[in-house]
Amino acid sequence: MSLRTRATSFLAGFALAGGATFYQLHTDINNGTEYLAAQAKEARESLELRVAALEAAVGGLQPAAAAPAAAADAPAADEVVAIAEPVS
Description:
- The chain is mainly α.
- The chain has one domain.
- It is built from three helices and no strands.
- It starts with a helix and ends with a helix.
């Protein structure tokens, strides 16, 4: 067999293997992307349901008229930080 035939066969095999690898990698990436998108959508829907339930529970605890009064009694942000600082 001549060198030319061997080189041509090698390059043809290399190109075929490269094409098959590219196709497999492309398919795996697409499947993984679809799976992650479905997981994210499911997690977002679950989180939205939990937030709605919490908002309903909090809404049942505090009447709408009492909410501003409770906010006036809350400490300011710098007071909260001062409480969290260690005492030396």
